[in-house]
């Protein structure tokens, strides 16, 4: 049965078929075509079933975010379905469940690759959204390092001395550096590759958001997370639905003058850190 008989439907490409990305898609997908990309066939099928049963038009494409050819194939598949008006990237690794090298590979380099590849297919007037993290605000890097993270060609990022030495010192540092790089790469892309397509791209930096992946973090480092919750003005965790509300705004027409920026949604954790109420390193 064909639920939507309209033609020329805008395409939404979601890389990383987890709960946060799915929540964002649900906010914006009515009357549009969704392309889900994930390395897990099982997750793709489960998410497709969930969205299809809710009335959305969905296709899937297995993609390895760490492989440029695979990401390019995903972008080309999206373009074959129609005008790619939205790109959302939620692919990432858990810092307490992954090696520093894998975090750099997936959260830093692979995110930069996705930004590059979707710059080639995003439609004029389209919008991109990269899900980063509050951790991108948890360390200060020198202007030189930030410049290198922002401007180094993607294929050379992993060869930077800072990345090969400091960023892989431990998973936490790798994660913080990768998420800061997300902000910087998006800011650069907004002014160059995405801007030249007359498209927008932004990042969101969630704080402690309850998702299935988050439970791995809570089990591994629950005390630290509890301290952050206690120190934050909100004194609670966030939800995927709250991130989805903000994501829908940044992807929508009311945010048409917003590009190259990051929206921190953390219940005030970073504010607490900056005011000295909480220290990550204590």
UniProtKB/TrEMBL annotation:
GO terms for molecular function: oxidoreductase activity. InterPro entries: NAD(P)-bd_dom_sf, SDR_fam. The keyword Phosphoprotein does not apply. Keywords: Oxidoreductase. Gene3D superfamilies: NAD(P)-binding Rossmann-like Domain. PANTHER family: DEHYDROGENASES, SHORT CHAIN (PTHR24321), ESTRADIOL 17-BETA-DEHYDROGENASE 8-RELATED (PTHR24321:SF8). Belongs to the short-chain dehydrogenases/reductases (SDR) family. This is Short-chain dehydrogenase.
């Amino acid at each position: 049965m064909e639920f939507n008989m309209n033609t020329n439907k805008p395409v939404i490409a979601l890389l990383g078929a987890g709960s946060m990305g799915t929540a964002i898609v649900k906010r914006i997908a009515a009357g549009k075509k969704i392309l889900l990309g994930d390395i897990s066939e099982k997750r793709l099928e489960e998410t497709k079933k969930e969205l299809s049963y809710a009335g959305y038009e969905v296709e899937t494409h297995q993609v390895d975010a760490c492989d440029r050819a695979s990401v390019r194939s995903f972008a080309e598949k999206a373009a074959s379905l129609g005008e790619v008006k939205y790109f959302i990237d939620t692919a990432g690794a858990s810092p307490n469940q992954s090696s520093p090298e894998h975090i750099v590979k997936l959260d830093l380099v692979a995110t930069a690759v996705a930004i590059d590849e979707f710059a080639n297919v995003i439609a004029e007037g389209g919008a991109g959204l990269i899900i980063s993290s509050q951790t991108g605000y948890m360390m200060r890097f020198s202007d030189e390092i930030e410049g290198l993270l922002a401007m180094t060609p993607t294929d050379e990022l992993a060869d930077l001395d800072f990345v090969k030495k400091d960023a892989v010192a431990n998973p936490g540092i790798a994660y913080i550096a990768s998420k800061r790089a997300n902000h910087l790469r998006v800011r650069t892309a907004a002014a160059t590759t995405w801007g030249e397509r007359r498209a927008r791209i932004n990042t969101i930096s969630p704080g402690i958001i309850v998702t299935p992946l988050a439970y791995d973090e809570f089990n591994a480092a629950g005390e630290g997370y509890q301290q952050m919750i206690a120190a934050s003005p909100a004194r609670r965790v966030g939800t995927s639905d709250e991130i989805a509300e903000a994501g829908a705004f940044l992807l929508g027409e009311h945010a048409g003058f917003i590009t190259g920026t990051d929206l921190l949604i953390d219940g005030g954790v970073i504010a607490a850190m900056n005011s000295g109420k909480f220290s990550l390193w204590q």
